[in-house]
Amino acid sequence: MKEFEGRVAVITGAASGIGRALTEMCIAEGMHVVMADIEESALDQAASELRATTNNQVLPIVTNVAIEAELRGALDEALEHFGGVHLLFNNAGVGGGGNAWNATQKDWDWVLGVNLWSVIYGLRVFVPQMIAQDTPCHIVNTASVAGLIGGSTNALYSVTKHGVVALTENLYVDLRAEETKIGCSVLCPGFVNTNIFNSGRNRPSNLVNETEPAAPTPEDEQRMAMFREILRQGMQPSEIADIVFDAIRDDRLYILTHDHFDDMIRTRADNIVTGKNPVMGEAALANLAKPQTPRD
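Now predict its structure.
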């Protein structure tokens, strides 16, 4: 997909962070935009601010992306207002927390629902419409560099992001096997200056744990403080949006944003093919804390 003027984009998680930046880029490219987000006040404010910058239409829709019917509602509204959808960003995501055995069922349901099931639902809902349109389209699924390296963050987040990478790789093959006019990409950013650390603000009440989590240890506090600072110093969302649109024009499957993680990706691949066990712990944390280098 190379032409964007007058086309229609649907963006989940559109009220803030990378989603807001993608919305701004779509508007700059002359697109009409459906902004889907669960955070109503932030969504209304973002839509109001962006409408003031464009003559193109900006349509905010409060959407829980973990519920397929709500994504179908977003598609229905897009078709009613604009007649089609050409660019889909399955972008909504949350951070979550916990390791492989102490995360609760509600923790898993929340993070899997937003980070992985929403992408699955997005494809089930929008791909048939894009195929029926028979026009150039593109899909960008937001994963993370955590979907390409091993054991770098909490189990819930890593599982979902590896899942999004695998799902998009299969999507790429399937779309070409069917000879569609739809391209796809998986976005695997490094650290970005967003408020994902505060994603619990949008956790549905039915998925909140009944008991309070154990108090963090001093080591936990230190790690969290380090990651917050790394995020604060991370790439700006607008830079990510620039990289994403370049990749869409190039019909590129993998969108990586930082050279910093290349060695970790190669090491994981080498460990797999040679049967080596990964080396983690403090050495890995120190590597994550190194200054990041944006990809050329």
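Residues 8 and 82 are 7 Å apart (CA to CA).
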